[in-house]
Amino acid sequence: MFARMVALVIGSLLLGIGINGFLVPHHLLDGGIIGLALILHYYFDFQAGLWSALLSIPLIIYAWVKDRAQFHGSVYGMIMTAVFIDVLAPYQFSFPIWASAILGGAICGIGVGLMLRYKTSTGGTDLIAYFIAKSTTWRIGLIIASMDVLIVLIGYQTLGLQSVVFSSITILTAGVLANICYEGF
Fold first, then answer.
1. 33 and 125 in contact (C-beta within 8 Å)?
2. Longest dimension (CA), the chain
3. Membrane-spanning regions, if any (predicted)?
4. How far, in Å, CA of 85 to CA of 52, rounded?
């Protein structure tokens, strides 16, 4: 239980740092629900953390029905991640876009993988990926990356080609590192 709570806090903190420190300064996207929340943030100036939590509610309800242990880790992870994203919003780093894409993806991927390894998540599409990976032979990182690419393509209209290209690098980096953290090498 203690290890799970530590993973939840550290994973959520890493997501808050990765998103705000590296992705937001260049209008890059993470994938999944957080990516949708970032699109809303860039387009309407909505709070990304709050909207990631609100958009995750249907998935959290699904977890309640299918896997109560995963529900508890996900609802707390969703809340903690939303808080860290919004609290850390003022903290941004000045790296070139390519470095921000790679570092942001690495930090977010490690955060997500750590949370999934200890049966917790942000409550977003990571939760969908967890349920799919649990019932199939598909690797969780590939599932996350596939869903995330779809979200980035949705952001193309708002953010343009440069954001899509570098956001794709972010997502692929995050998917690989999430998979490594979740399953090992």
1. yes
2. 44
3. 31-61, 73-91, 97-116, 137-158, 164-182
4. 9
Residue in 21, 17, 38, 40 with CA at minimum distance from that of residue 29: 38
Calculate the CA 76 to chain-centre distance. Answer: 15
Entry pTM: 0.88
Model pLDDT for residues 95-105, shown as the tens digit of each residue: 999 999 999 99
Cβ atoms of residues 84 and 15 within 8 Å: yes
Q: Using alpha carbons only, how large is the chain's radius of gyration in Å?
A: 15
Structure tokens given for 170: 């972010």
The whole domain housing 65 covers 2-183
Residue position matching structure tokens 């959290």: 60
pLDDT of 66 higher than 90: no
Place of tokens 């917790």: 120
Could you give the angle at which helices 125-135 and 32-44 cross, rounded to 10 degrees?
Answer: 160
Q: Closest by alpha carbon to 59, among 111, 131, 117, 113?
A: 131
Residues 53-73 have a mean pLDDT of: 85
75 near 123, Cβ under 8 Å?
A: yes
Sign of CA dihedral 14, 92, 97, 157: positive
Domain count of the fold of the chain: 1
